[in-house]
Amino acid sequence: MDNREAAAMFDTLGDLLEIQGESVFKVLAYRRAAESIRSLGRDLHEVWADRQLRDIPGVGEAIASKIDELFTTGHMAFYDRLTAEVPLSLTEVLRVGDVGPKKAARFWKELGITSRAELEAAARAGRLRDLPGMGAKSEARILESIEALKQRQSDRISIGTAMPVAEDLIARLRKSGAVAAAEMAGSLRRWRETVGDIDLLVGATKPEAVMRAFLALPEVKRVRGQGETKASVELANGLAVQMWVHPPERFGTALQYATGSQAHNVRLRELALDRGLSLSEHGFRRKDGSEILCTKEEQVYATLGLPWIPPELREDRGEIQAAQSNRLPRLVSLRDIAGELHAHSDWSDGVATLDEMAQAAVDAGLTYLVISDHSKSLGVANGLTVERLRRQRKEIDRVQKRLGGKIRLLQGIEVEILADGELDFPDKVLSSLDVVTASVHSSLRQRREQVTARMLKVIRNPHVDVIGHPTGRMIGSRDAADLDMEAIFHAAAEHSVALEINSHPERLDLNESHARRAAELGCLLAINTDAHRPEHFALRRYGIGTARRAWVHPDQVVNTWSLDKLTAWTDGRR
Length: 574
Hints:
Elements: H1 3-19, H2 24-38, H3 44-49, H4 61-73, H5 77-85, H6 90-93, H7 101-111, H8 116-124, H9 136-151, E1 157-158, H10 159-175, E2 181-184, H11 186-189, E3 194-195, E4 198-203, H12 207-215, E5 220-226, E6 230-235, E7 240-246, H13 251-259, H14 262-274, E8 277-280, E9 283-286, E10 291-292, H15 297-303, H16 319-324, E11 339-343, H17 354-363, E12 368-371, H18 386-403, E13 408-416, H19 427-430, E14 435-439, H20 448-459, E15 466-467, H21 485-495, E16 498-502, H22 512-520, E17 524-528, H23 540-549, H24 563-573
Parallel strand pairs: 4-7, 11-12, 12-13, 13-14, 14-15, 15-16, 16-17
Antiparallel strand pairs: 1-3, 2-4, 5-6, 6-7, 8-9, 9-10
């Protein structure tokens, strides 16, 4: 069993427990374990053999014992028991929009539906609409979701899965002593939200030594192809990796060629021809056959009369014209982020205490942190009542006193936007908070006019500062709400409400195209992690990648501001 298969098993356990109605904390424990195993750089079996399972984030004693049982006996009694109690194929039904665990359980118990195909057949036959809480519209939305799932089946990988693996491979190649330079390339280096595979580029004088070092890495499970300067492999976690080796003196042109989109590279080749040059991954060639070699990317662009263009912009969306006229923007970067406006603790569905989240924010270099736990209507997330919100304020004050001036803690809320556009808490409660983030988690399949009106109503509320993950999408598993985004952007700009770029790799919402349009219209943005555990603060970089692809300047991002400027903005909105 490889890492991908083991992660899938723990994901399945989470699904089955959710269908059975187990506590959200138990379900999340299995999902966190799956996430950690999926992104693990080493073979899980090797980690088990070295007795280091407890070193994996999210793997405690109970889950470690289940992995141990699996690798020792080839079976997991807990998994066998659950799959005997709940049909395994029922987990497919959970992937359908508008179908949560309670509905999946009801479809199974009342209609005998145990698979997505059976659900589709029942919906087309009109058998769902008469169930309590359903109706013809709900039935139609389920059919729409099933069709959408069919269309988006893809072998592409989340950047959150691919990036840590690529970075680990690059780090070890650099330490091998056989390379002069090593970088990731392709859509991963451009920070696209999903990638087909991992591309690595190496500069070395002895490619055979690099090949030996690469193929000897413990993660390499299968060699798909190998030549003198290229190797294609499959890792233990199922990811496909390709590596090319070029002479160091040609590394710059090779890296540029392997990074830029096809359209961007075509534009560069046209510019080269205008200068009497031909450009390839190997270098520039003059008409007399002589070459211009580039060890660094900057030399490639300089030869064409251009400043270096950041990888995130290399999509032929105006970046070359901007470079020619010296109008490339200063893009937001990780070092610009001063604070986090959207983080959860174990007061709702987070896994860490306020102390632990605050210390993690300090360690991440943040100067302020807004604790934004869920509001009461999101019961599955252990949302806060008004009374619990008041008690939390006292606990935040206690933690602040302990930390002193290391960081400023603020109390916020991720308040639920209800189906009718009302908010989960009255304005009087919201006015007592430092930063209010409003988010939609349910009724995402409302018709366009209804869901847009719902969002616009919230944007006009002066007590709402940020709209969290505005479209509600989950990459590869849940479609975005059918919002009139142009209307949303204009309203947000008018009312000085910030729109969130949620940094979690499964969301990245706003996406890059929405974020760019929002920025063009003068909207404020917030790059947040939606952290539910201390290590999630590191997810900021994925939101940064999306913002950079959207040409976002630091001044447009409210959590790059100083605390004084941020509070002046929220006070001014009130």
